[in-house]
Fold:
Amino acid sequence: MGFDPWDAAFVADPYPAYRELREQGRAVWWEPTGQWLVPHYADVSALLRDRRLCRTYLHRFTHEEFGREVPSAEHEPFHVLNGNGLLDLENPAHARVRRLVAKAFTPRTVERLVPAVRRLAQELVGRLLAEGGGDLLTTVAEPLPVAVIAELLGVPEADRALLRPWSADICGMFELRPDEETARRAVRASVEFSAYLHGLIAERRARPGEDVISGLIAAHDEEGRLSEQEMISTCVLLLNAGHEATVNSTVNGWWSLFRNPGQLAALRARPEKLSTAVDELLRYDTPLQMFERWVLDDITVGETTVPRGAEVALLFGSANRDPARFTDPDILDLSRADNPHLSFGAGIHYCLGAPLALRELEASFGALLADGVPPLRLVEEPRWQEGYVIRGLERLLVEF
Structure:
Protein backbone atom coordinates (compact mmCIF):
# COMPACT_ATOMS: atom_id res chain seq x y z
CA MET A 1 0.00 0.00 0.00
CA GLY A 2 1.40 3.38 -1.00
CA PHE A 3 0.85 6.92 0.22
CA ASP A 4 -2.92 7.49 0.32
CA PRO A 5 -4.13 9.91 3.01
CA TRP A 6 -7.79 9.16 2.23
CA ASP A 7 -7.43 5.42 2.86
CA ALA A 8 -8.38 4.25 6.35
CA ALA A 9 -5.73 1.53 6.37
CA PHE A 10 -3.02 4.04 5.49
CA VAL A 11 -4.17 6.49 8.18
CA ALA A 12 -4.10 3.66 10.74
CA ASP A 13 -0.48 2.84 9.86
CA PRO A 14 1.26 5.19 7.40
CA TYR A 15 4.77 4.11 8.33
CA PRO A 16 5.31 1.31 5.75
CA ALA A 17 4.32 3.77 3.00
CA TYR A 18 6.79 6.29 4.40
CA ARG A 19 9.58 3.71 4.07
CA GLU A 20 8.69 3.35 0.40
CA LEU A 21 8.68 7.12 -0.09
CA ARG A 22 12.12 7.49 1.48
CA GLU A 23 13.42 4.86 -0.93
CA GLN A 24 11.89 6.69 -3.91
CA GLY A 25 13.81 9.90 -3.31
CA ARG A 26 14.18 13.08 -1.35
CA ALA A 27 11.34 14.94 -3.07
CA VAL A 28 8.54 12.81 -4.54
CA TRP A 29 5.88 14.37 -6.78
CA TRP A 30 2.34 13.42 -5.75
CA GLU A 31 -0.19 14.14 -8.45
CA PRO A 32 -3.50 13.97 -6.50
CA THR A 33 -2.75 17.22 -4.63
CA GLY A 34 0.02 18.60 -6.82
CA GLN A 35 2.59 18.58 -4.01
CA TRP A 36 6.18 17.54 -3.53
CA LEU A 37 6.37 15.05 -0.65
CA VAL A 38 9.52 15.40 1.45
CA PRO A 39 10.01 12.27 3.60
CA HIS A 40 13.60 12.46 4.94
CA TYR A 41 14.52 13.89 8.34
CA ALA A 42 17.47 16.00 7.19
CA ASP A 43 15.45 17.64 4.42
CA VAL A 44 12.36 18.26 6.56
CA SER A 45 14.51 19.79 9.30
CA ALA A 46 16.40 22.01 6.86
CA LEU A 47 13.33 23.16 4.93
CA LEU A 48 11.49 24.12 8.12
CA ARG A 49 14.29 26.65 8.66
CA ASP A 50 14.60 27.76 5.01
CA ARG A 51 13.00 31.18 4.54
CA ARG A 52 12.48 30.52 0.83
CA LEU A 53 9.54 28.41 2.03
CA CYS A 54 6.63 30.01 3.85
CA ARG A 55 3.19 29.20 5.14
CA THR A 56 1.81 31.98 2.94
CA TYR A 57 2.95 33.85 -0.13
CA LEU A 58 0.68 36.87 0.24
CA HIS A 59 3.36 38.99 1.91
CA ARG A 60 5.24 38.89 -1.42
CA PHE A 61 2.79 37.98 -4.16
CA THR A 62 -0.87 38.20 -5.08
CA HIS A 63 -2.71 34.97 -5.81
CA GLU A 64 -2.53 35.75 -9.52
CA GLU A 65 1.21 36.50 -9.44
CA PHE A 66 1.81 33.21 -7.68
CA GLY A 67 -0.28 31.27 -10.15
CA ARG A 68 -2.95 30.30 -7.62
CA GLU A 69 -6.71 30.68 -7.66
CA VAL A 70 -8.27 33.38 -5.53
CA PRO A 71 -10.12 31.64 -2.66
CA SER A 72 -13.90 31.68 -2.75
CA ALA A 73 -15.41 34.82 -1.22
CA GLU A 74 -17.70 32.53 0.80
CA HIS A 75 -14.62 31.17 2.60
CA GLU A 76 -13.25 34.61 3.48
CA PRO A 77 -14.08 34.47 7.23
CA PHE A 78 -11.88 31.38 7.59
CA HIS A 79 -9.00 32.80 5.53
CA VAL A 80 -9.05 36.13 7.37
CA LEU A 81 -9.02 34.35 10.72
CA ASN A 82 -6.33 31.86 9.71
CA GLY A 83 -4.18 34.31 7.78
CA ASN A 84 -3.73 36.67 10.72
CA GLY A 85 -2.61 34.01 13.19
CA LEU A 86 0.98 33.12 14.07
CA LEU A 87 0.90 29.90 12.06
CA ASP A 88 0.45 31.73 8.75
CA LEU A 89 2.04 35.10 9.49
CA GLU A 90 5.51 35.71 8.08
CA ASN A 91 8.10 38.25 9.12
CA PRO A 92 8.11 41.05 10.06
CA ALA A 93 4.51 40.56 11.30
CA HIS A 94 5.26 37.10 12.68
CA ALA A 95 8.19 38.31 14.79
CA ARG A 96 6.15 41.22 16.16
CA VAL A 97 3.16 39.09 17.20
CA ARG A 98 5.27 36.20 18.46
CA ARG A 99 7.26 38.49 20.77
CA LEU A 100 4.03 39.65 22.38
CA VAL A 101 2.50 36.20 22.75
CA ALA A 102 5.75 34.61 23.94
CA LYS A 103 5.47 36.59 27.16
CA ALA A 104 2.66 34.23 28.17
CA PHE A 105 4.82 31.14 27.60
CA THR A 106 8.05 31.95 29.37
CA PRO A 107 9.71 29.09 31.28
CA ARG A 108 8.77 30.83 34.53
CA THR A 109 5.11 31.05 33.52
CA VAL A 110 5.01 27.40 32.47
CA GLU A 111 6.67 26.22 35.69
CA ARG A 112 4.21 28.31 37.71
CA LEU A 113 1.37 26.43 36.02
CA VAL A 114 2.76 22.95 36.67
CA PRO A 115 1.22 22.37 40.14
CA ALA A 116 -2.24 23.34 38.88
CA VAL A 117 -1.81 21.15 35.77
CA ARG A 118 -0.80 18.17 37.91
CA ARG A 119 -3.68 18.74 40.31
CA LEU A 120 -6.21 18.88 37.47
CA ALA A 121 -4.75 15.75 35.87
CA GLN A 122 -5.06 13.90 39.16
CA GLU A 123 -8.67 15.04 39.55
CA LEU A 124 -9.58 13.87 36.05
CA VAL A 125 -7.89 10.50 36.58
CA GLY A 126 -9.65 10.21 39.94
CA ARG A 127 -13.04 10.60 38.22
CA LEU A 128 -12.09 8.03 35.59
CA LEU A 129 -11.00 5.65 38.33
CA ALA A 130 -14.23 6.19 40.29
CA GLU A 131 -16.21 5.24 37.21
CA GLY A 132 -14.11 2.15 36.60
CA GLY A 133 -12.94 3.44 33.22
CA GLY A 134 -14.41 5.06 30.13
CA ASP A 135 -13.22 6.99 27.11
CA LEU A 136 -9.75 8.29 27.88
CA LEU A 137 -10.12 10.92 25.17
CA THR A 138 -13.17 12.66 26.58
CA THR A 139 -12.46 12.11 30.29
CA VAL A 140 -8.74 12.98 30.54
CA ALA A 141 -7.02 13.77 27.24
CA GLU A 142 -9.42 16.52 26.19
CA PRO A 143 -10.43 18.31 29.40
CA LEU A 144 -6.87 18.88 30.65
CA PRO A 145 -5.34 20.96 27.82
CA VAL A 146 -8.65 22.72 27.12
CA ALA A 147 -8.85 23.85 30.75
CA VAL A 148 -5.21 24.94 30.85
CA ILE A 149 -5.19 27.02 27.67
CA ALA A 150 -8.63 28.46 28.44
CA GLU A 151 -7.41 29.46 31.89
CA LEU A 152 -4.34 31.10 30.38
CA LEU A 153 -6.45 33.07 27.93
CA GLY A 154 -9.16 33.90 30.42
CA VAL A 155 -12.06 31.97 28.87
CA PRO A 156 -14.77 31.49 31.54
CA GLU A 157 -15.30 27.89 32.61
CA ALA A 158 -18.94 27.98 31.51
CA ASP A 159 -17.89 28.70 27.92
CA ARG A 160 -15.19 26.08 27.52
CA ALA A 161 -17.47 23.43 26.04
CA LEU A 162 -17.76 25.65 22.96
CA LEU A 163 -14.05 25.49 22.17
CA ARG A 164 -13.39 21.95 20.94
CA PRO A 165 -16.28 21.85 18.40
CA TRP A 166 -15.18 25.20 16.95
CA SER A 167 -11.59 24.03 16.91
CA ALA A 168 -12.41 20.71 15.21
CA ASP A 169 -14.43 22.46 12.49
CA ILE A 170 -11.70 25.01 11.79
CA CYS A 171 -8.94 22.40 11.77
CA GLY A 172 -10.86 20.40 9.18
CA MET A 173 -9.58 22.92 6.63
CA PHE A 174 -6.00 21.85 7.26
CA GLU A 175 -6.67 18.41 5.80
CA LEU A 176 -5.86 17.61 2.19
CA ARG A 177 -8.53 18.69 -0.31
CA PRO A 178 -11.30 19.57 2.20
CA ASP A 179 -14.75 19.35 0.63
CA GLU A 180 -17.32 22.12 0.54
CA GLU A 181 -19.19 20.87 3.61
CA THR A 182 -15.94 20.97 5.60
CA ALA A 183 -15.38 24.51 4.35
CA ARG A 184 -18.90 25.57 5.37
CA ARG A 185 -18.38 24.22 8.88
CA ALA A 186 -15.02 25.97 9.12
CA VAL A 187 -16.51 29.28 7.97
CA ARG A 188 -19.38 29.00 10.44
CA ALA A 189 -16.99 28.16 13.28
CA SER A 190 -14.70 31.04 12.26
CA VAL A 191 -17.58 33.51 12.39
CA GLU A 192 -18.92 32.20 15.71
CA PHE A 193 -15.50 31.92 17.36
CA SER A 194 -14.53 35.43 16.21
CA ALA A 195 -17.80 36.89 17.47
CA TYR A 196 -17.32 35.18 20.83
CA LEU A 197 -13.80 36.57 21.15
CA HIS A 198 -14.95 40.07 20.15
CA GLY A 199 -17.30 39.92 23.12
CA LEU A 200 -14.68 38.47 25.47
CA ILE A 201 -12.17 41.13 24.45
CA ALA A 202 -14.74 43.84 25.16
CA GLU A 203 -15.29 42.36 28.63
CA ARG A 204 -11.56 42.19 29.35
CA ARG A 205 -11.08 45.71 28.10
CA ALA A 206 -13.64 46.88 30.66
CA ARG A 207 -12.33 44.58 33.41
CA PRO A 208 -8.69 43.57 32.75
CA GLY A 209 -7.31 40.47 34.41
CA GLU A 210 -4.04 38.55 34.61
CA ASP A 211 -4.78 36.50 31.50
CA VAL A 212 -3.24 36.50 28.02
CA ILE A 213 -6.18 38.29 26.40
CA SER A 214 -5.78 41.19 28.84
CA GLY A 215 -2.10 41.34 27.94
CA LEU A 216 -2.86 41.38 24.22
CA ILE A 217 -5.41 44.15 24.74
CA ALA A 218 -2.74 46.21 26.49
CA ALA A 219 -0.41 45.73 23.53
CA HIS A 220 -3.20 46.80 21.17
CA ASP A 221 -4.52 49.76 23.15
CA GLU A 222 -1.39 51.23 24.66
CA GLU A 223 1.23 50.64 22.01
CA GLY A 224 -0.72 49.84 18.84
CA ARG A 225 1.44 46.81 18.18
CA LEU A 226 -1.40 44.39 17.57
CA SER A 227 -4.48 44.77 15.41
CA GLU A 228 -7.87 43.57 16.65
CA GLN A 229 -7.89 40.86 13.98
CA GLU A 230 -4.39 39.69 14.94
CA MET A 231 -5.55 39.52 18.53
CA ILE A 232 -8.57 37.37 17.66
CA SER A 233 -6.61 35.15 15.26
CA THR A 234 -3.87 34.66 17.84
CA CYS A 235 -6.39 33.62 20.49
CA VAL A 236 -8.04 31.13 18.13
CA LEU A 237 -4.69 29.65 17.16
CA LEU A 238 -3.60 29.33 20.78
CA LEU A 239 -6.86 27.63 21.70
CA ASN A 240 -6.75 25.30 18.68
CA ALA A 241 -3.07 24.45 18.79
CA GLY A 242 -3.11 24.44 22.58
CA HIS A 243 -5.30 21.40 22.76
CA GLU A 244 -5.80 19.64 19.38
CA ALA A 245 -2.30 18.17 19.22
CA THR A 246 -2.10 17.51 22.96
CA VAL A 247 -5.37 15.57 22.96
CA ASN A 248 -4.17 13.37 20.10
CA SER A 249 -0.70 12.98 21.61
CA THR A 250 -2.28 11.60 24.78
CA VAL A 251 -4.53 8.97 23.22
CA ASN A 252 -2.10 8.07 20.43
CA GLY A 253 0.58 7.68 23.08
CA TRP A 254 -1.53 5.33 25.19
CA TRP A 255 -2.41 3.29 22.13
CA SER A 256 1.34 2.94 21.45
CA LEU A 257 1.90 1.83 25.05
CA PHE A 258 -0.88 -0.75 24.89
CA ARG A 259 0.76 -2.20 21.77
CA ASN A 260 4.13 -2.28 23.53
CA PRO A 261 3.35 -3.78 26.97
CA GLY A 262 7.01 -4.31 27.81
CA GLN A 263 7.71 -0.60 27.42
CA LEU A 264 4.60 0.27 29.44
CA ALA A 265 5.74 -2.01 32.26
CA ALA A 266 9.22 -0.45 32.20
CA LEU A 267 7.74 3.04 32.41
CA ARG A 268 5.48 2.08 35.28
CA ALA A 269 8.55 0.77 37.11
CA ARG A 270 10.59 3.92 36.37
CA PRO A 271 8.17 6.88 36.37
CA GLU A 272 11.08 9.30 36.80
CA LYS A 273 11.86 8.64 33.11
CA LEU A 274 8.52 10.13 32.07
CA SER A 275 9.85 13.20 30.26
CA THR A 276 12.10 11.06 28.07
CA ALA A 277 9.19 8.69 27.45
CA VAL A 278 6.86 11.50 26.35
CA ASP A 279 9.37 12.68 23.77
CA GLU A 280 9.64 9.15 22.41
CA LEU A 281 5.86 8.76 22.21
CA LEU A 282 5.71 12.03 20.24
CA ARG A 283 8.38 10.75 17.86
CA TYR A 284 6.98 7.26 17.49
CA ASP A 285 3.45 8.27 16.49
CA THR A 286 3.38 11.93 15.55
CA PRO A 287 0.04 13.76 16.00
CA LEU A 288 0.78 16.24 13.17
CA GLN A 289 1.82 14.11 10.22
CA MET A 290 2.28 16.77 7.55
CA PHE A 291 3.20 20.46 7.45
CA GLU A 292 2.79 22.30 4.16
CA ARG A 293 4.88 25.18 2.82
CA TRP A 294 4.82 27.29 -0.33
CA VAL A 295 8.03 27.66 -2.31
CA LEU A 296 8.68 31.39 -2.82
CA ASP A 297 12.01 30.96 -4.63
CA ASP A 298 13.40 27.92 -6.43
CA ILE A 299 14.95 25.32 -4.12
CA THR A 300 16.87 22.09 -4.69
CA VAL A 301 16.09 18.96 -2.71
CA GLY A 302 18.60 16.29 -3.57
CA GLU A 303 18.74 16.29 -7.34
CA THR A 304 15.25 17.75 -7.72
CA THR A 305 14.60 21.42 -8.43
CA VAL A 306 11.34 22.52 -6.85
CA PRO A 307 10.24 25.74 -8.55
CA ARG A 308 8.71 28.88 -7.14
CA GLY A 309 4.94 28.50 -6.90
CA ALA A 310 5.09 24.83 -5.90
CA GLU A 311 3.91 23.43 -2.59
CA VAL A 312 5.91 21.01 -0.49
CA ALA A 313 4.46 18.63 2.08
CA LEU A 314 6.95 18.07 4.88
CA LEU A 315 6.19 14.63 6.29
CA PHE A 316 6.84 14.85 10.03
CA GLY A 317 5.70 11.27 10.61
CA SER A 318 8.19 9.96 8.07
CA ALA A 319 11.03 12.20 9.28
CA ASN A 320 10.54 10.95 12.83
CA ARG A 321 10.95 7.35 11.62
CA ASP A 322 13.96 8.00 9.36
CA PRO A 323 16.70 5.41 10.05
CA ALA A 324 19.29 7.92 8.84
CA ARG A 325 18.62 9.90 12.03
CA PHE A 326 17.13 7.43 14.54
CA THR A 327 18.46 4.02 15.48
CA ASP A 328 15.76 1.35 15.09
CA PRO A 329 13.14 4.05 14.38
CA ASP A 330 10.21 1.63 14.17
CA ILE A 331 10.85 0.41 17.72
CA LEU A 332 9.27 2.26 20.63
CA ASP A 333 12.16 2.86 23.03
CA LEU A 334 11.03 4.97 25.98
CA SER A 335 14.64 5.31 27.16
CA ARG A 336 15.76 6.87 23.85
CA ALA A 337 17.99 9.78 24.89
CA ASP A 338 19.11 11.16 21.52
CA ASN A 339 15.69 12.21 20.27
CA PRO A 340 15.52 15.47 18.28
CA HIS A 341 12.06 14.69 16.88
CA LEU A 342 10.30 17.25 14.71
CA SER A 343 6.83 16.90 16.22
CA PHE A 344 6.83 20.54 17.33
CA GLY A 345 8.32 21.79 14.06
CA ALA A 346 11.44 23.95 13.75
CA GLY A 347 12.48 27.42 12.67
CA ILE A 348 10.38 30.53 13.24
CA HIS A 349 7.17 28.49 13.40
CA TYR A 350 8.42 26.15 16.12
CA CYS A 351 5.49 25.50 18.45
CA LEU A 352 5.37 28.31 20.99
CA GLY A 353 3.45 26.16 23.45
CA ALA A 354 5.75 23.12 23.28
CA PRO A 355 7.07 23.45 26.87
CA LEU A 356 3.51 23.71 28.20
CA ALA A 357 2.31 20.79 26.06
CA LEU A 358 5.14 18.61 27.38
CA ARG A 359 4.22 19.46 30.96
CA GLU A 360 0.56 18.64 30.30
CA LEU A 361 1.49 15.28 28.76
CA GLU A 362 3.82 14.47 31.66
CA ALA A 363 1.02 15.36 34.09
CA SER A 364 -1.65 13.21 32.44
CA PHE A 365 0.59 10.18 31.86
CA GLY A 366 2.04 10.59 35.34
CA ALA A 367 -1.38 10.66 36.98
CA LEU A 368 -2.42 7.48 35.17
CA LEU A 369 0.84 5.70 36.10
CA ALA A 370 0.96 6.87 39.71
CA ASP A 371 1.24 4.54 42.68
CA GLY A 372 -2.20 3.46 43.81
CA VAL A 373 -3.76 3.74 40.35
CA PRO A 374 -4.46 0.25 38.95
CA PRO A 375 -3.04 -0.52 35.49
CA LEU A 376 -5.17 0.60 32.59
CA ARG A 377 -6.55 -2.08 30.28
CA LEU A 378 -7.77 -1.58 26.74
CA VAL A 379 -11.45 -2.42 26.23
CA GLU A 380 -11.49 -2.44 22.43
CA GLU A 381 -9.11 -1.76 19.56
CA PRO A 382 -9.64 1.89 18.65
CA ARG A 383 -10.48 3.34 15.27
CA TRP A 384 -8.74 6.32 13.72
CA GLN A 385 -10.51 9.51 12.75
CA GLU A 386 -10.69 10.22 9.03
CA GLY A 387 -8.19 13.08 9.16
CA TYR A 388 -4.57 12.38 8.20
CA VAL A 389 -2.77 15.71 8.66
CA ILE A 390 -3.99 16.05 12.25
CA ARG A 391 -4.11 12.37 13.13
CA GLY A 392 -5.87 10.95 16.16
CA LEU A 393 -8.19 8.26 17.46
CA GLU A 394 -11.98 8.54 17.57
CA ARG A 395 -11.96 7.31 21.17
CA LEU A 396 -9.92 5.11 23.50
CA LEU A 397 -12.05 2.97 25.81
CA VAL A 398 -10.19 1.75 28.90
CA GLU A 399 -10.91 0.09 32.21
CA PHE A 400 -9.00 -0.50 35.46
Observations:
- The longest helix spans residues 180-206.
- DSSP finds 17 helices and ten strands in the chain.
- Strands lie at 28-30, 35-38, 53-54, 133-135, 290-295, 299-301, 304-306, 311-315, 377-378, 397-399.
- The mean pLDDT is 93.
